[in-house]
What we know:
Layout (H helix, E strand, L loop, with lengths): L10 H10 L12 H5 L24 E3 L2 E3 L9 E4 L37 H11 L3 E7 H5 L20 H14 L3 E8 L20 H14 L6 E5 L22 H16 L4 E5 L4 E2 L7 E2 L19 E6 L27 H11 L14 E6 L8 H16 L3 E4 L3 E3 L8 E3 L5 E3 L8 H9 L13 E5 L5 E2 L2 H5 L8 E4 L5 E6 L4 E5 L14 E3 L16 E4 L4 E9 L2 E9 L9 E4 L21 E3 L4 E8 L11 E6 L2
Parallel strand pairs: 3-4, 3-12, 4-5, 5-6, 6-7, 7-10, 10-11, 11-12, 13-14, 17-18
Antiparallel strand pairs: 1-2, 8-9, 14-15, 16-20, 18-23, 19-20, 19-26, 21-24, 22-27, 23-24, 25-28, 27-28
Helix pairs in contact: 6-7, 9-10
Pfam families: Cellulase (PF00150)
Family: Belongs to the glycosyl hydrolase 5 (cellulase A) family.
Protein name: Glycoside hydrolase
Amino acid sequence: MPMPSAVPRLAVTAAGLLLTAATTLTATPLATPASAAVPRHATAVRAPADAADPVAWAAPLSTRGRYIVDAHGDRFRLKGANWDGAQGSWTGSGSAADPAGHHAGQDSHDIPLGLDRAPLAQLLADFHQAGINTIRLPFSNEMIHRTTAVPDSAVAANPRLRGMTPLQVYDAVVDALSRSGFAVVLNNHTNTSRWCCGIDGNERWNSGQSTGQWADDWVFMARRYASVPHVVGADLYNEVRRDVLDDPNWGLGDGHDWYAAAKLAADRILTEGDPRLLIVIEGINWTGVPVDGLPHGRPVLAPARTLSHTLVDARKLVYSAHFYGYTGPHHSGATGIGETHDARYQDLSRAELATVLDDEAFVVEESGRHYTAPVWVSEFGIGSAETNPAARTWFGNITGYLAEHDADFAFWPLVGFAGHDDWALLRYDDTGRRSGILDPGDWRGTAWQRLMTAPGTTGPVAPAPVWRMLSTDHGDAVASLRVRAAGDWDPGAYKAACPDGTRLIGLSHTGGRGLCTDTGTADLRAADARQTVVTDERQVPAGGDWASGYTKYQCPDGEFLIGYGLRGERVSAALCVPARSAPAGAGRTVWFDRSDGRPADAPGGDFAYGSSKGQCAVTEYAAGIAFTTRVGSRPGPAALLCRTLP
Length: 646
């Protein structure tokens, strides 16, 4: 989210671094301290029937390659905006009871902005008129647990919301949005209810709380709205960034590992909360110290190219990134203290901006890779009072890029108070009169309409092959729910298993990485729940030595590989399951202990940077793993037995 001009986005961060060198309307809540602490309102608040527009899409949403699709397989482009407020608006200085201490003088009272100024039905009608179909709806963990009712003045235009807690108001808003046909993406924006995004106690998902508590709150929210039809996504955390002492990271396995935390929360949401939801994972927003000569910058989604997420549902992952003109690839957005001499995005030419956007985010939309996923630019924006020519040019450039690339997007913010926040798409004065992007005098309107009306992919999207990485860097990577249901199949080992519907097609010699796919066939696995854990060579037939001198863990006839176990580097087990029809072919050996053993132009991408890898062809399946126990040799996977698909 943007900071007011008087308080640049990361100025507080830089200074700190330098100083240190109602009722849930349609769902049943999870029995957590959050639900116990929130009294349930007796009456459900519904949008008037005439506020609901015909819905031309069907939930739930999923992904096909770089596209999001609805339940019919039709493209659903997230054309969205952020309806903020429930994440908090206090800036952290001055009295929280004084509107002057809140962003742009707007005290949100921890509920979506504007409910004091316009009836909910009017707000929704205006949202439709703006052309959006998706609402990113921020919330804070603190808001979830609050038990005090919002003041009547905060919902003056919606008297039926009086007496409700912030969470119950949030319930009413979620329900009304869904009934009106909007796709709703829940967004954990902050831990504490205050405006972000400097050093403010909200730098990471576990700032001021444990990762377990954060994941518990996500399960609570997912369950709370599990039966609200158009709640379609869980946006896990906003703008993960550095605090005073340390950077977040992507895959180091420590307490600041955003890659691991996101994977944990996603797993729990999909298995304990609501399996329908898209999981939105934002890249890392900022690392390093914003001082000339010291390392600093915005990794964004670049780390996903070498370490991507594999969820228990392989078609639920969406990656996300934020872009504002006053920030830059290595610019925090600060002015004064914390400002460096790096270029801001608004300093870049149209071509330079496109290159940076590709490198930092849209690279993950590249087809046929383990990291392939839709990219949602879930925040970008600019003020209607902006006069800087460079900033105005940037807005035209980024909306042009989003239009040309048929990208998913969400403007920040959607609602604001007239005379307070000129960034808002729609502003309301204290009488409920609307102004903003729909007015002829708003200079942003031309670029906005060009973006909203640009041609793009519509209708049915062809199924795309799934490619997903398995990583045992710091623990198990068992992404198959069917395998999990069978229990621990190799106690004491680090285990990996492909998501249901996919098969193992590649392995690395070192590093414990694997590659899964469904290419070349539909789900190959039989309905049979049986699985075979192979820990010796008894399945290798006489005369069938396909890796002479090496230990071979081979699947029984009629079965194929979906997983593996490792103790240290050494292979400890192969996991095989029966095929729905008997796989064919004698097979061939693919070696990769001394060099790369992948096909030329191998799909899936480099799933194990820095290690040699082996991979079966897309017309094959893996039926065995070979390795050596010779002294002086690496005991990791050395060869795959690849057989032709049935």
